[in-house]
Design a protein that fits this description.
two-stranded antiparallel sheet; 37% strand; 4-stranded antiparallel β-sheet; 2 domains; N-terminal domain of TfIIb; alpha+beta
Length: 150
């Protein structure tokens, strides 16, 4: 087999070989600079967990959206998805908690969401919903609400 025939036959495999070469290069780089690479990922993870916005190759990570209207155009909604009003939201390392309420004629429906991160990095979610009679929502400013007696 001549060299030109071999190159023509292998032409379709060149992108695959290039991809494998890049993966191999990144693995070797990661092995030699393991501590530095791990440090970069730890720093990025902390920034995202704290709510910082991070843009990587045009992808936004960690941006906190407070209203459905702030979501990208491709999101389709029906009705008013912002009927639940945020009472509070708290976040720490490995946990998140939020409480939202929906005002009804004789009280409020209150939803509590708790998220915890396990040691392997997965998030577990627990939610509780309860009707609280004889209360209403009172706005303290544009986006802050509290529950008060009627």
């Amino acid at each position: 087999m001549k060299t030109t025939e071999f190159l023509e036959a292998a032409d379709g495999y060149v992108p695959l070989v290039q991809s494998i070469a890049w993966i191999f290069f990144l693995l070797i780089l990661g092995l030699f600079f393991r501590k530095q690479v791990t440090g970069v990922f730890v720093i990025l993870k902390k920034r995202i967990e704290s709510g910082s916005e991070l843009k990587i190759a045009g992808l936004e990570v960690g941006k906190l959206v407070t209203k459905t209207s702030d979501l990208p155009d491709e999101v389709k909604t029906f009705g008013d998805p912002d009927q639940l009003k945020l009472l509070f939201k708290a976040q720490g390392k490995g946990w998140k908690k939020s409480t939202k309420a929906l005002e009804m004629p004789n009280g409020c429906i209150v939803q509590v969401t708790t998220e915890r991160q396990s040691a392997d990095g997965d998030w577990a979610n627990a939610e509780a919903v309860v009707f609280v009679p004889n209360v209403k929502l009172e706005g303290t400013d544009e986006n802050a609400f509290k529950i008060v007696k009627q």
